[in-house]
Amino acid sequence: MKATRQIEVSLIGKNQLTIPIAQNLSSQLYQVSLYYRNDLSDKRKLSDAISMIEIADYEEELLERLGLFSRNIVVCSTNDDAINRKVALMAKAKGVKRVICRLESSSEDETLQKQGIEVFSSYMSNKISLKRFN
Fold first, then answer.
1. What average pLDDT score do residues 110-115 get?
2. Where in this chain does the record put each RCK N-terminal domain (predicted)?
3. Residues 6+ apart with CB under 8 A from 2
């Protein structure tokens, strides 16, 4: 039987958006890790198939040591646009091929887009989905 190569996906932030994504991606195709700050009140446990990495802060040296920048895909989706932007730029600069960044204040970030970083807004996605019902 041929071994299937797993796609390594890391999610930054533990919240109402990243938890369902991590749970849905967890399969033989994806190896999922979730990085989150230890000051969060969200203590939900996830599947053992998801690597949970609790950190003090999103510092470049720490994230590099923990292997974040060696992943195939990095999704920055904390509830703080500044953190998402900072980590997305770090990941791209360190050579991560696909970086996805959540920005709620503005999805029109030219700096990120020029770097090849995909930008999304959960608010805008929900707004577009709801328009289908009109």
1. 90
2. 13-119
3. none
Q: Is the pLDDT of residue 71 over 90?
A: yes
Residue closest to 86 by CA, chosen among 52, 63, 56, 67: 63
Cβ atoms of residues 133 and 108 within 8 Å? no
d(CA 66, CA 55): 10
Nearest residue to 33 via CA among 16, 18, 17? 18
Average pLDDT score over residue span 115-122: 90
Flag whether 2 is in a domain: no
Q: Tell me the C-alpha distance between 41 and 29, whole Å.
A: 30
Give whole-number Cα distances, 21 to 18, 32, 42, 55, in Å: 5, 10, 16, 20
**CATH, residue 94:** 3.40.50.720
Structural domain including 41 reads: 7-131
**Range in 32-36, 51-55, 117-121, 123-127 the model is least confident about:** 123-127
